């Protein structure tokens, strides 16, 4: 058995945190031979609820759970952690503008970035789930000058998995046989789910579906899937979001499958004309605990316009929080 690694979850008593903690403790994220110590962070009023989560975790008697730290203090939450899943965020309140939401979350993700900088293991892998995920990740990254910017990512894997699910349903082929799906840009309704590189059971996906279905049904359905879940369930995606976060971290830590890739929000580096300065979702391959943006894909005019639109939104989000980007 390996030595335990430390995994932080913020907002651990919330819906996604609750769905996530048990699966990580069961080994779904890092494998059946990797013990974990969970560091669970909550705001002070939620500490009693968090204590209930700890009681349940202990009552599962998970063979891989080597310890649990439950706290409302950032330094304790991030001390020596190897993985940090930043889920807890400020929801949009009544009458709150997008700019207010961005600033309110900046007040959470700036200090969290600084605490990760000061307390986390130097190899920490950070995934931001809490919305607006890409810009929250940017804020955390900018407040952690001693860590490599590449250690900060944002979650678009749920969008990626939703796109797989829609295409599987349309083609009648199980998603196990769908490769090279891509989500470009922001985790928001401007994201661009792109099937141009996708294969379904070895065949080019665009040749299997009508162009009109792709543009008028598939793209908006993936973009609006979160709202559809809220309408159906009366609550936002929780188990699927937790599952996607686990997928993201597992791919990053343990690698992507040969001949396939995953979508990850990562610092833009000029790839595909997206200048540095934002966290943008790209197709990525992972190996040996590192990710690389897939290079050299052909991008047609339709894709270029969609990729630029979601980039514009991210630049606007950045402009709204510029004052929070200095440590
Ligand atoms: P909940 O409101 O159920 O849980 C959030 C938890 O975070 C609460 O328990 C709250 O006490 C805690 N919290 C708030 N501020 C905190 C802070 N400063 N430090 C520590 N904990 C804090 O929301 P939930 O449904 O779990 O969603 C969490 C976040 O994920 C939201 O921002 C949501 O918008 C976002 N999502 C992101 C997705 C993605 O694909 N990137 C999809 C799912 C989800 O909508």
UniProtKB/TrEMBL annotation:
Q: Where does NAD(+) bind?
A: 11-17, 105, 112, 129-131
* E.C. number(s) listed in UniProt: 1.1.1.37
Which molecular function GO terms apply here?
L-malate dehydrogenase (NAD+) activity
Annotated catalytic residues: 187
The biological processes this protein is annotated with in GO are: malate metabolic process; tricarboxylic acid cycle
Instruction: Tell me which residues bind substrate.
Output: 92, 98, 131, 162
| Ranges for domain Lactate/malate dehydrogenase N-terminal | 5-145
Query: Pfam families annotated for this entry?
Result: Ldh_1_C, Ldh_1_N
State the protein's purpose: Catalyzes the reversible oxidation of malate to oxaloacetate.
**Family under the similarity heading:** Belongs to the LDH/MDH superfamily. MDH type 2 family.
Query: Can you name this protein?
Result: Malate dehydrogenase
């Amino acid at each position: 058995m390996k030595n335990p690694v430390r995994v932080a979850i913020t907002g651990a008593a919330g819906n996604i945190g609750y769905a996530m903690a048990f699966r990580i403790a069961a080994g779904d994220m890092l494998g059946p031979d990797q013990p974990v110590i969970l560091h669970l962070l909550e705001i002070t009023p939620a500490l009693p609820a968090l204590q209930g989560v700890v009681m349940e975790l202990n009552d599962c008697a998970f063979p891989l759970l080597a310890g649990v730290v439950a706290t409302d203090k950032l330094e304790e939450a991030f001390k020596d952690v190897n993985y940090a899943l930043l889920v807890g965020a400020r929801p949009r309140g009544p009458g709150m503008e997008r700019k207010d939401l961005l600033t309110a979350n900046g007040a959470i993700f700036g200090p969290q970035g600084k605490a990760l900088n000061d307390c986390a293991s130097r190899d920490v892998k950070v995934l931001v789930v809490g919305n607006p995920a890409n810009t929250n990740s940017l804020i955390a990254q900018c407040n952690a000058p001693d860590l490599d910017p590449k250690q900060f990512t944002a979650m678009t894997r749920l969008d990626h998995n939703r796109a797989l699910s829609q295409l599987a349903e349309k083609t009648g082929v199980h998603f196990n046989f769908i490769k090279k799906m891509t989500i470009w840009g922001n985790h928001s309704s401007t994201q661009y789910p792109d099937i141009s590189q996708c294969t379904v059971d070895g065949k080019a996906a665009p040749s299997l579906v009508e162009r009109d279905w792709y543009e008028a049904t598939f793209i908006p359905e993936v973009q609006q899937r979160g709202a559809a879940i809220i309408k159906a369930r009366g609550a936002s995606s929780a188990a699927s979001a937790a599952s996607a976060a686990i997928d993201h971290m597992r791919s990053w830590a343990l690698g992507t499958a040969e001949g396939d890739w995953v979508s990850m929000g990562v610092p833009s580096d000029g790839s595909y004309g997206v200048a540095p300065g934002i966290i943008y979702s790209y197709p990525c391959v992972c190996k040996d605990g590192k990710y690389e943006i897939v290079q050299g894909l052909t991008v047609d005019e339709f894709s270029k316009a969609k990729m630029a639109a979601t980039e514009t939104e991210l630049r606007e989000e950045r402009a709204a929080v510029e004052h929070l980007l200095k440590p």
